TrEMBL record:
SUPFAM superfamilies: HIT-like. Residues 68-177 form the HIT domain. Gene3D superfamilies: HIT-like. The lineage of its organism: Bacteria, Bacillati, Actinomycetota, Actinomycetes, Micrococcales. InterPro entries: AP-4-A_phosphorylase, FHIT, HIT-like, HIT-like_sf. This is ATP adenylyltransferase. It comes from the Bacteria.
Length: 203
């Protein structure tokens, strides 16, 4: 049996044996091939679009009713991903974690700058940070931590109006090719499960 003749494309979307070239160019719609296996592995992370698009960021950063760090303590621990509630500060999982177990230590009071904290807030934020490190070590066994506050949008603060201390566990090789080349982070455990494990281990 003979195959298609010259000037035809046996596989294109125009159908077997339909003319190509100047008479009928073949244009493949990439949307038709979504999910079709090829030689490239893909890790789909559509949930990241919420962060990229600015979801959950307050329109007015100074409005406590819009601030997610002000409204979180009014919700249940499970719903808000709160690990521990202190007297003047609390510990919550980062909704968009850099690594599994990424915690935030936040004062309840809506203040932006570290110098605005009163003595009780400074003490409790520091104590909760130390306890968070101990709990994460016990549950997750990281090799190290990044601790820090991004003060102001220019320093990378996503919600600059409400101060929060980052506690990020680190493992050897966690900065592999995925985030460096693909700008994608693989998080192997659900936030709800992480919250439960850390809350159960909190002294």
């Amino acid at each position: 049996m003979s195959g298609p003749g010259p000037g035809t494309d046996p596989t294109g979307p125009t159908g077997p044996g339909r003319p190509t070239g100047p008479e009928r160019p073949v244009v493949e719609d990439a949307g038709d091939f979504a999910g079709v296996p090829d030689d490239t592995d893909r890790l789909w992370t559509p949930h990241r679009m919420a962060y990229i698009g600015g979801e959950n960021k307050p329109v007015d950063p100074h409005d406590g009713d819009q601030c997610p760090f002000c409204t979180a303590p009014r919700r249940s621990d499970e719903d808000a991903l709160i690990v521990h509630r202190g007297e003047v500060a609390y510990v919550v999982l980062n909704l968009y974690p850099y690594n599994s177990g990424h915690l935030l230590v936040c004062p309840y009071r809506h203040v932006a700058d570290y110098t605005e904290l009163d003595d009780a807030e400074v003490r409790e934020v520091a104590e909760l940070t130390r306890t968070a490190m101990r709990v994460i070590r016990e549950v997750s066994g990281p090799a190290g931590f990044n601790l820090g506050m991004n003060q102001g949008p220019v320093a990378g603060a996503g919600i600059a109006a409400h101060l929060h201390q980052h506690v990020v566990p680190r493992w050897m090789g966690d900065a592999n090719f995925l985030p460096i080349v693909g700008h994608t982070k693989a998080i192997p455990i659900l936030l709800a499960d992480t919250r439960r494990l850390y809350a159960d281990a909190w002294p």
